[in-house]
Specification:
The protein is 44% helix and 11% strand. The chain is an alpha/beta fold. Keywords: Oxidoreductase.
């Protein structure tokens, strides 16, 4: 375990040489994304941040951005309004960023929520939970890879549940469209496993970029309420889940510091704020750049047995399905 004391000490060393110069936060309007963005700005370093969010969040976020400028006058924050559950919107946002920047140092992805109801499709025919938890995140990654590869120490962090992959996902219905395929556990499991399988492939082909699939542990982001379709599940969340989360979760401050550490420390891939502890080990068993499955304690998880099975049985099928889905949006 990386102690919180070590994390705070490392984050105190962040400077203009180790902070990401250009960051893209998708899902930074609430929860872990917003906490981490604020922690990054609070370091006082010079940086540019693209913040992507829905129209309904814009007024609230403009006030938040104004507060951040007071905290750090050297920051530049560019707000982009978009509904990124739509892949066409995801592509549009990426084209805006690619038109303005030659490099991206940090892509921080936290969109999504836990669904407790049936499929709820976007106008593009994807379930919203799947689109936010997997498809949109992966499309952002693919579109921005050229900019990431040109950066000095680029990182892609997807906050979901790295290390909790399952070998028995439904390879015959990856989109969970058939009757009986879709459910809370199935959607959650597919998003996690497909994320790791896809990032493992991308990381192997892009050795200049560090990828992190991270599990946040218990954090009271409020997103557990978003997927409630009726009063019964809403009652269960209010009476059982919310009190449990409140008891077990990290504080907002600790969570933000842990993700700031992951975003800037050399423990993962060897570039960033110098790290004197045990280096992280990626999914290929080395400490070089690659994909790191990172726990809520900032330790690396191998899940080697499951990943070995997935590489053999699922990786190509997941990748073919992903590219087929993305065909109109690449």
């Amino acid at each position: 375990m990386v102690s919180y004391k070590q994390i705070v000490a490392s984050n105190a060393l962040i400077n203009d040489g180790t902070a990401p110069r250009v960051s893209v936060f998708v899902g930074g309007t609430s929860g872990i994304g917003r906490m981490t963005l604020q922690a990054l700005v609070t370091t006082g370093t010079s940086m540019k941040i693209y913040l992507v969010g829905r129209k309904s969040s814009e007024q609230r976020m403009q006030a938040f951005i104004a507060d951040l400028y007071v905290i750090n006058p050297k920051v530049e924050i560019i707000w982009i309004t978009a509904e990124v559950s739509l892949l066409a919107e995801t592509k549009r946002v990426c084209e805006i960023i690619k038109g303005k920047e030659s490099t991206v140092d940090l892509l921080f992805l936290t969109t999504g929520y836990t669904t407790f109801g049936p499929r709820d499709e976007t106008t593009e025919g994807l379930d919203i939970c799947q689109s936010l938890g997997y498809y949109s995140r992966m499309l952002f990654t693919l579109h921005l890879l050229p900019l990431l590869n040109r950066a000095e120490a680029p990182k892609v962090i997807s906050v979901l549940a790295g290390g909790m992959e399952r070998a028995n996902i439904n390879l015959h219905d990856l989109g969970l469209r058939k009757p009986g395929s879709f459910g809370t556990i199935q959607c959650w499991s597919h998003n996690i496993t497909m994320t790791t399988v896809a990032l493992d492939k991308i990381a192997n082909e892009n050795p200049n970029v560090t990828f992190i699939h991270s599990a946040p542990g218990w954090v009271n982001t409020g997103n557990v309420n978003r997927g409630n379709p009726n009063w019964l599940t809403g009652w269960f969340v209010w009476l059982v889940l919310e009190p449990l989360i409140a008891i077990l979760s990290f504080s907002d401050e600790e969570s933000s510091q842990r993700y700031l550490f992951q975003s800037t420390n050399a423990a993962y891939g060897g570039r960033g704020v110098p790290w004197t502890g045990q280096p992280g080990v990626n999914t290929r068993g080395t400490s070089d750049n690659g994909l790191f499955l990172v726990s809520s304690k900032c330790d690396c998880i191998s899940n080697a047995k499951t990943l070995g099975v997935l590489r053999e049985t699922a990786q190509e099928k997941v990748w073919e399905h992903t590219l087929e889905t993305f065909q109109p949006y690449l």
